[in-house]
Amino acid sequence: MEGELANIKKWNVLYPVYINSKKTVAEGRRIGLSKACENPTCAEIGDCCSYLKLPFAIEIDKAYPRDFMQRGRVRVLLKKEDGTLYNSSIPSRKQLMLRVAEMVPRHHGRTKKQEPASTSTAGPSNKSGKGGKKRR
User: Alpha-carbon distance 18 to 27, whole Å?
Assistant: First the structure.
């Protein structure tokens, strides 16, 4: 375990802020707004990394330096010790951010959450508010 932790320090760091469409470049977003996703979590990023067959480690206790209220980061290993890639379609950190941002909106936890939310917002929208008398 000790040797593995020493190795993790050399892995690429991916903060959720890097791919968050709600953030500006000054606040830490690193990819284009059109390619970014809305409010990603560390768990969603980790699931995307496991789907891409990349080794990753979630560090919940770490915070993003520019915004210390943003908790958590994901460490990802792109290359093996001999220099070959784990996933040949992801050669760089930037490519990893783009692929993860593309996958997070389709995450199974996210699609389940949005379905009940859309039915609950549709309920009150059927009412047109108070139906009292109009003033003349």
Answer: 9
